[in-house]
Design goal:
Elements lengths: L42 E5 L4 H13 L6 E4 L30 H8 L11 E4 L4 E4 L2 H9 L19 H16 L1 H6 L4 H21 L13 H20 L11 H11 L2 H4 L4 H11 L24
Parallel strand pairs: 1-2
Antiparallel strand pairs: 1-3, 3-4
């Protein structure tokens, strides 16, 4: 079994539970001393179309009109077969990022910290001039795009973090992260039956709650599209194509939740959501890189993604 398929073993507790590594590049953006300066054209976001944490950055940058001031580089959804978990720029000509001129994401991490020992993760914000990762704080990044980068927002963009809802959004986002976004990984990378079942119950317990919540509103906060919707969407978009089978979250599919499924389709049909959702990349990554038993690298033909274009009532 290749090392690139077992990276998560380094993040497994004695009880067999998956414990996600902490990010090491968490300097915030801002105008204060020691903060990352908010400057157009200075940074490049490296993402994978397969990764939910990275996907939500691209959705928010697109919604707010920030893609003109922060460039984007894309890594291959299939990890290279290296001794350590990595991402490669094999989608680009000559197999290197056209702006940063590197072949692997690890080059940018090691430029920033020669002794870096964690996983090389996306999203990663890179200073273009120094070719160093300066921030990989996936949990807080969208908050920066929505607040301190506001001077670069285009006119009439949605307010994804309205002042009067912020505390409620922060509280709900903690739940979405722990029980849904990361919850699916806790199930998929569990190394004991007990840890798997605990995560399984956690995920579906929360999905049941959101199914009920969305029976009474179009979005998580009524008719207002917020940061929380972006965070929930990226997991829902991957559920039937990957998590249901690869992560053994098979109590039911997303399409079996009437309200969640209608909600997910409504979001998908917003161009910044659906236009950045690549189901082929999602299937390739999870079925090839996250399923140790798939030695033949077979990628499922289904599910039928055309149903995402049907009206979400």
């Amino acid at each position: 079994m290749m090392a690139y398929k077992t990276w998560f073993l380094d993040e497994t507790s004695k009880a067999g539970a998956f414990v996600r590594q902490k990010n090491q590049f968490t300097t915030p953006f801002g105008e204060g001393e020691g903060e990352l300066p908010v400057v157009a054209g200075k940074y490049r976001l490296i993402w994978s179309q397969a990764c939910p944490w990275a996907h939500r950055q691209v959705i928010v940058l697109s919604l707010l009109g920030l893609r003109e001031v922060i460039s984007i580089g894309t890594v291959d959804p299939v990890r290279p077969e290296k001794e350590r978990s990595d991402w490669a720029f094999t989608l680009d000509e000559r197999g290197e990022d056209p702006v940063l001129k590197v072949k692997f994401l690890s080059d940018l991490y090691l430029n920033a910290k020669a002794g870096y020992r964690g996983r090389f993760t996306v999203p990663a914000i890179v200073d273009i001039e120094t070719k160093k990762v300066v921030n990989n704080d996936y949990f807080n990044l969208t908050y920066y795009w929505e607040t301190v980068w506001k001077k670069y927002h285009k006119p009439n963009v949605p307010d994804l973090l309205p002042e009067h809802l912020r505390n409620d959004i922060f509280k709900l986002n903690d739940i979405i992260f722990n029980d849904i976004n990361n919850g699916v990984y806790k199930a998929g990378f569990a190394r004991s039956q007990q840890a798997y079942e605990k995560a399984y119950d956690l995920v579906f317990g929360r999905l049941d709650e959101f199914e009920q919540r969305l029976s009474q509103s179009r979005f998580l906060f009524g008719d207002t599209l917020t940061d929380s919707d972006v965070r929930l969407y990226v997991t829902l978009a991957r559920f039937d194509a990957a998590y249901y089978s690869v992560f053994r979250l098979n109590r039911q599919r997303l399409v079996d939740f009437p309200n969640l499924w209608a909600y997910a389709r409504r979001l998908y049909q917003i161009p910044e959501f659906g236009g950045t959702t690549d189901f082929d990349a999602i299937k390739k990554h999870y079925h090839i890189c996250c399923d140790p038993g798939n030695e033949s690298h077979i990628v499922p033909k289904g599910p039928d993604v055309s149903v995402w274009k049907t009206k979400g009532t």
